[in-house]
Amino acid sequence: MTKVPTIARIWRGRTKPEFADEYEAYNRAEGVPPLLKTALGVQLLREDRKDETWFTTISYWADMQSMTAFTKGDPEQVHHLARDAELLCELPERIQIHKIVVPPRLR
User: What percent of the chain has pLDDT over 90?
Assistant: First the structure.
């Protein structure tokens, strides 16, 4: 039986356009794989603006217990990747936790 996600954990960070491709590749290689091993699903979103590029990582969880087990503590605490300080404009201070009210319906 497939678990239905009830919680989304959302991280956002931004980088300069000249670092955007490098950060995307780095995040795909270092940030996403640990989530794929544990979360029910993961999305990495990219928004290219004129002067900056925003990245959003959304991971989906069955419940707070599974998310807390993954983070080994406070699920709102950010665990920065080794090169985040080098590639991001600033280090994000928190993670957003959202209750999923209407789960996605895929065709």
Answer: 77
Give the chain's mean pLDDT: 92
End-to-end CA distance of the chain: 18
Which residue type does 107 have?
R
Dihedral class, residue 69 (left if φ above 0, else alpha if ψ from -120 to 50, else beta): alpha
Is the pLDDT assigned to residue 73 strictly greater than 90?
no
The whole-angstrom distance between residue 77's C-alpha and the CA centroid of its chain comes to: 12
> Where does the pLDDT of residue 5 fall: very low under 50, low under 70, confident under 90, or very high at 90 and above?
confident
Q: How far apart are CA 36 and CA 40, in angstroms?
A: 7
Report d(CA 22, CA 18) in Å as an integer: 8
What's the sign of the alpha-carbon dihedral 26, 32, 34, 37?
A: negative
Token pair 């950010």 is at which residue? 78
Supply angle C-alpha 79, 104, 28, rounded to 5: 35
Cβ neighbour number for residue 27 with a 10 Å cutoff: 22
